[in-house]
Amino acid sequence: MWIWLFRAMTELTSRKSISRLTGSFAQSSASRRFIPRFARMYGIRVEEAEKPLKDYNTLNEFFTRRLKPGMRMIDSDSTVVVSPVDALVTGAGPIDAGTIVNVKGQDYTIDELLNQSPRTENYKNGYYAVLYLSPTDYHRIHVPVDGTIEERDYIPGKVYPVNEFGLRHMRRVLSRNERLVTYIRHSVGETAVVKVGALNVSSIRYTEPQTRQAEKGAELAYFEFGSTVVLLMEDDTFIPRSDLAVGLRVKMGERLGSLRSE
User: Which cofactor names does the annotation list (predicted)?
Assistant: First the structure.
């Protein structure tokens, strides 16, 4: 009964218009006074932020804050794939004949996640990691591997929550929500960085200026609230670290695994 009610309420509030209203407030000067309360509520490590709290003019500006230099160490090994975000791993494993299996009890196909892109064939037997950003986390998304950006794809959709409730009880959230996909060609293949919008995320934005060169650790994009990144590795290109599994917390720049040798 309660799950049905929450699901129905979430369906009603999943429209972009509702998310835009929330985003408009977060971008207004009136939101500024909520910044300290928000930081306390979510236990945000404000000492890592690039600026003092008083220097942020809106709640949105604080959501999308940069960090002080040196707050995240980027694994410099050229064979290493790093986490593009600070996140909780909510799914990870081999892709089984084009299917991502059992992310909070639900399966997803690569075809639907990438919106039937011709590139889906590259990932049918690859590897995936689902990385969830809570409101506590740093919200900027970084390049996971050195390479060249081959394509940027925008996929319109809903804005369902991607938290525990959303992933478990809403139908196929990762492939129904709005998404930005960046395809990066690296030394042994390709990776897709799938940025999934969520409830109260007014938008996902690329960092400007956009370039074709992808340097590991460089800024790629940012969420204007917590959300999820799905990292897809092409067939036979990736060896995950031994403890990459649901429940692991990772920091941006931390090793997720290694590229297979050419």
Answer: pyruvate
For residue 113 the two structure tokens come to 């996640």
Decide: 197 and 204 in contact? Cβ < 8 Å: yes
List, by residue number, the catalytic residues: 86, 142, 227
Specify whether the CB–CB gap between 257 and 188 falls below 8 A: no
Per-residue pLDDT tens digits for 21-50: 566 767 788 889 999 999 999 999 999 999
pLDDT tens for 66-107 read 999 999 999 999 999 999 999 999 999 999 999 987 676 778
* Residue with the two structure tokens 């959230």: 173
Q: d(Cα 41, Cα 34) in Å, to the nearest integer?
A: 10
Do the Cβ atoms of 92 and 130 come closer than 8 Å? yes
- Calculate the CA 126 to chain-centre distance: 19
Torsion of CA 201, 202, 203, 204, to 10 degrees: -30
